[in-house]
Design goal:
Radius of gyration: 19 Å
Number of strands: 13
CATH topology of the largest domain: D-Maltodextrin-Binding Protein, domain 2
CATH superfamily of the largest domain: Periplasmic binding protein-like II
Strand content: 15-25%
Largest sheet: 5 strands, mixed
Order of helices and strands: EHEHHEEEEHEHEHEEHHEEEHH
Strand order of the largest sheet: 2-1-3-10-4
Number of domains: 3
Amino acid sequence: MRIGSRGSALALAQAGHVAGLLEAHQPHPPVEIITISTSGDSDGRGSESPLSDKSRWVDTIEQALVADEIDLAVHSAKDVPSELAEGLELLGAPARAAAEDVLCGAESLDALPAEARIGTSSVRRAAQLRAVREDLEIVMLAGNVDTRLRKLTSPDGGGLHAIVLAHAGLQRLGRESDIGAVLDPQRFVPAPGQGVLALEVRAQDTRVREAVQEITDADTFACLLAERTLARELGASCNTPLGAHAAPAGCGCLLLHAWAGLPDGSAWVADELLGGFYDPAALGQRVAERMLAAGAGELLRRAEEMAIEHA
């Protein structure tokens, strides 16, 4: 089994986790991890670019999958665009890691001084932070997890008071001791798919499909489908501050939280709704309809315009 992965420490940790799950299910053959550089890795813009495109983080991995150079692609689900390459399918996901955002460098947002400088690479996180505390100075922060943590303590890091990262990344890298506070996911609604490893396969590859299904967590995959449907129906992009987080709620239900706003945090719309576990796409679509009725579409259009103006 050949797994395709980006080459960052976090991506390789994620691919290694999936490899371990596959190897634990015999009689599968040994698993090989093949490192592939994506456009996002090679062009140097990173997520600082206001017009970045999610496909840049998966493009060459998908090409390798289509070309039968790998058998399975492992992605951070939040980096996977709504539209996949032709002939490919997101088939499953192992159990979700922690989905929340976390604050590093401070014990809480309230503990930060007035006009504190907070680093993040995410337009969603920036918008949600500004919505809670308009005095904060948001510093766009690129680089991998280790690079961002070093900038927090480095003399040349720009005098950052704190940074916001995904809990899952620190969890998978064994860096949870760097967490100062876990942010409330109902106020800081995570990105669609945050904490989930999306497993992408060729639609007709029966052998790999069977292997993926053996290691897929049904709850996690249902939540992912609800969140991705919401994002697709709202027409979300890297430039639109959107949060979507579904979780099992018992009795065969999922609870989906959603948040959409402007990058400056001056306006936002939020919603939550219970829906059936066995039709997560319908739940995502229904919440999207409610969000659009409440004005989320106009907010996201304005967010795109603001991104273009600041490009």
